[in-house]
Records
---
Amino acid sequence: MNKTFFLETFGCQMNVVDSERICHLLAEIGYYRTEHVDNANLILLNTCSVRDKAERKVYGHLGSFKPLKSANPELIIGVGGCVAQQEGEQLLTNIPFLDLVFGTHNIHKLPAMVTAVEQDRVRCHETDFLDRETRLQLWPNRADISGGVTRFVTIMQGCDNFCSFCIVPHVRGREISRPSTEIIREIEGLAAQGVKEVTLIGQNVNSYGGKDETEISFAELLRKVALVEGIERLRFTTSHPKDLSDDLIATFSEIDTLCNHLHLPVQCGSSPILKRMNRGYTREDYLKKVAKLRQARPDIRLTSDIIVGFPGETKEDAAATLSLIEQVRYADLYLFQYSPRPGTAAAALVDDISKAVKQERFDRMLAMQRTISQEVWNADVGTTLPVLVEGHGRQKSGQLFGRTTWNRIVNFTGDDPLIGSVQPVRIIKSLKNSQLGELL
Ligand code: SF4
């Protein structure tokens, strides 16, 4: 009888990619994915600790699995990802019915860990960071995981920036860049399978190659990827503004297949707070880069992240952020209320902005952004846009979905053979997170 596993993924694209790898590794030891947690032989959570809310969700989910374990002692329950990396063995102590904990550098050990639990009913944890050479050797080539029109390709791992609020360098380790020759080989393999769009991902792709004198820069990598035949669209994320070079900005005027969207997290619109966040740029630096981007690609749409209520944030700082939102006119914005992450530099600062003040500033920024987003996305209504068709829509049968160059999901009625092609779709309505269209 087939064994099944239920896997839930929290957080960013890096975790989405790690989860694909987990599925691949578990298939090698005879486990097949199920969407039904109640019948699974193995339950795994691939976790995120970047935000307090995501971390609390993990604990909530684990609690809900306890009755399943009581009813079936053979059930294996494991936790991976950033919470696992951060808590390590302590998680096993805190949660007596948990069987295994694997950190961000130890996904490759998962099959052996699951087998050990199955055979010997041991509880195990693996959270050591690996050295650079081992990490490079273990880098999976994801061209062997087939399927899909769009794919993420990891080009770097870890981060050396140590923004004062951020847990990532502590749970993902130091920054390493994958050799460009391997990246190109993987993308050629994906193109041969019919993949049409790739998104190059990493914690800060803009600094790709920066630690290795023999490696090419990120702008050069983009130019090489753009030459891969069959890849019709190219995206990348995440971009640190301090590493957004003029050469990288120039790629937006040179490379037609590079999409008209950039996620450029600003975090705050006030220079003194940016300094305390250790971001390495000022408000003025950021705005200059935005202006250059718009010169290189006039119809580019930007999205961003903002942390509201960082320690010491005055009402003038909050007003500066509000005015930056108004000036940049992001297409979408992800707002978060600050909460200290244990182990970060900012955790040593007094979290002195009250919940009520954070909420009030958050609400004002959100209200302004909602108005701007509506204006930006409503401007598409009545226009015909090229949409890369990715698959079946979830809401109605006969409905397909795809994305515009601005990374907006469009649902429309169409037939299966369109999947994988770029089609002209007239936008008839803009909703909060997607658009409705009709195929021309
Ligand atoms: S650049 Fe800053 S915010 Fe981004 S992952 Fe690195 S430390 Fe975190």
Note: DSSP finds 14 helices and 19 strands in the chain.
---
Amino acid sequence: MQTDLLQEARRQSEICNACRYCEGYCSVFPALHEERFFTDANLTQLANLCHNCRGCYYACQYTAPHEFDLNLPKALAEVRQDSWESFAWPAPLARWFQKSGVMIALATILGFAVHFLAFRALGSSGGEGFYAVLPHSAMVAIFLPAFLFPLLSIAVSLRRYWQATDGARVTVTNVVDAFSSAAKMKNLAGGHGDGCNFEDEDRFSHTRRLSHQAVMYGFLLCFASTSVGTLMHYLLDLPAPYSLWSLPKLLGIPGGILMVAGTVVLATLKLKADKNLGAPSAWGGEMAFVLLLFLVAFSGLLLYAFGNTAVMPAMLAIHLGSVLSFFLLTPYTKMAHGFYRLAALVRDAQRKAAG
Ligand code: HEM
Ligand code: SF4
Ligand code: SF4
């Protein structure tokens, strides 16, 4: 990991430790106040615990032009970004994708191209509905490795994170604690529960937290919809497409709508917010990730709407192409944040239990 970024985070954490004004703002400060010297392990954990709500920056009396030049959200965002790059496996892929929106866009276009080519080479093999365009066996051959590889890659990265932050043996209570915090996205509610200042100094709002919840729960509903569809296909011999009142659609349509609405709001907030309170070099890659999520959801909804028309093959290629890119890029884009942040919450639950 880059020592200059760690050194800057260390300098600022030491000032915060002496000041203690932001004591009740979020989970970062209680963890920070327990340390006297900040090791790389401490700083990596603090960085992944920070939710970038920016409350501490706007409350701070030591920001520029003060000579201390405090900007804790930025210092932690840069260490966080750097930690994801150094834990990712295989590392060169991470360096390409994590900061670059252009690389994400190229990978997405490649995903479309793979599907268009597969349609032409393998299509019209006598199946029905979507499978007339691309046989089921071809879909499985493309998506199974694309789903399993990211899981393996993320598992390697999380192990590295755990070792780098001196994590102890995980208990069920730690995990329950972490999931309940993530489920409510507690740390994005602002220190006093009246919202965070992400997009504007003077405005406390829950917009970012609620739109994140919309995207996160929307994504989980879509994932559940695909899983139910897979089970119906293999266990009940009921292949897609499904009717409007079937379980895959009852889960997938609200999920897609939540994701579309949530990503639009998150992208708007991101445009309004000050880039310099995050990791400015990662902004393009983060925005590309939000847009890729939007594309996955929006193309899925269009496929529901136009599944029985002549544009269906094109819609299917766009949807499957964006889903393929999304899965393959998961370990190397902002999507990895969900895993690291859960790990940081588990680690924080261990700290609280020990204290
Ligand atoms: C598993 C637990 C998760 C946690 C604890 C979590 C936490 C966070 C936090 C703290 C942020 C704001 C700070 C930052 O920009 O890094 C964020 C941003 C975001 N998260 Fe999550 N997240 C989780 C899962 C998910 C999932 C499953 C999705 C969707 C698939 C998702 C989509 C997003 C998006 C789109 C952003 C905005 C990115 C941006 O503004 O740059 N998150 N998440
Ligand atoms: S961010 Fe500023 S006000 Fe808050 S604890 Fe640190 S130095 Fe003090
Ligand atoms: S930006 Fe928000 S979450 Fe991060 S340290 Fe400051 S108050 Fe805590």
Note: Residues 89-354 form one domain.
